[in-house]
Amino acid sequence: MRRKVIAGNWKMNMLPNEAIEYIEAFTPLVKDSKAEVILCVPYTDLFYCLMNVQGTNIKIGAQNMHFEEKGAYTGEVSGQMLKSIGVEYVIIGHSERRQYFNETDESVNKKIKAAFANELKPIVCVGEKLEEREAGKAESVVTTQVKLDLEGLTKDQVKSTIIAYEPIWAIGTGKTATSEDANNMIKTIRKQVAELFGSDVAEEVIIQYGGSVKSSNAKELFTTSDIDGGLVGGASLKPDEFSKIVNYND
Ligand code: 13P
């Protein structure tokens, strides 16, 4: 059976002192969690968070990285830099980066490869826009993203990739996909992974749902056949609320 992985994406929120206070409050609430717990935090919080989660079951991720190792890329942070301070996960291709920072499937693919070259585990985001869903194109948009984003990876790399299905219309809007719709799309993604990399890989790969996940809908979403946990934005900013999502099965 696949494990459940629940990640918080703080986005551009939390100063270091707030991050430290959060971890102090959050740690005891999730210490017995059966799910794997990850906090994906701003660059400026990474080091503080890594120091403060030592000896706990909480893992730390970044929210983006550049695909080059180093060089004249003012303002960018490389996979090598993340790895050097002990970061374990990195979100790649979040829809906000695709939308506001011109990320493409090509750059997402390069970043995933660079993440693996630095022994970071990527959380790769895919998902359709509202107009694409309304035009009946949701499945083709998402399966194309999966194909292009994962192109050229080895089977082992895909097995340790986390895919997050985040329909863009459900992000930060309070509108959640129904558990049935989300589970169906995740089944479609798994089928696509099976066609591209084999059914053994598809059986193992973790596929999360993201988009207005809260403590009130987490259990319904995470107990479906194919949803292996969640990527949580707004509701991950409060330790109490996020701990209820992590402990959805209690
Ligand atoms: P919300 O949970 O705030 O809808 O955000 C989802 C998301 O974008 C997580 O990456």
Short description:
It is built from 12 helices and 8 strands.
The shape, in one word, is globular
Strand elements, count:
8
Under CATH, the homologous superfamily reads Aldolase class I
What sequence of helices (H) and strands (E) makes up the elements? EHEHEHEHHEHHHEHHEHEH
The average pLDDT value, as a whole number, equals 97
Structure description:
The radius of gyration is 17 Å and the shape is globular. The relative contact order is 0.15. Helix 11 runs parallel beside helix 12. The mean pLDDT is 97. It is 46% helix and 15% strand. It has a single domain, classed as Aldolase class I (TIM Barrel). It has an 8-stranded parallel β-barrel with strand order 1-2-3-4-5-6-7-8, surrounded by 6 helices. It has 12 helices and 8 strands. By secondary structure, the protein is an alpha/beta fold. Strand 3, helix 3 and strand 4 form a beta-alpha-beta unit. The structure holds 1,3-dihydroxyacetonephosphate.
Helix/strand layout:
Blueprint (H helix, E strand, L loop, with lengths): L4 E5 L6 H15 L5 E5 L2 H10 L5 E5 L16 H6 L4 E4 L2 H6 L4 H13 L3 E6 L3 H5 L3 H13 L4 H5 L2 E4 L13 H19 L1 H6 L1 E5 L4 H8 L6 E4 L6 H8 L4
Parallel strand pairs: 1-2, 1-8, 2-3, 3-4, 4-5, 5-6, 6-7, 7-8
Bound molecules: 1,3-dihydroxyacetonephosphate.
1,3-dihydroxyacetonephosphate (13P) binds next to β8.
Question: Which features would summarize this protein structure in a list?
Answer:
8-stranded parallel beta barrel, 8 strands, 46% helix, alpha/beta, 250 residues, binds 1,3-dihydroxyacetonephosphate, 12 helices, TIM Barrel, single chain
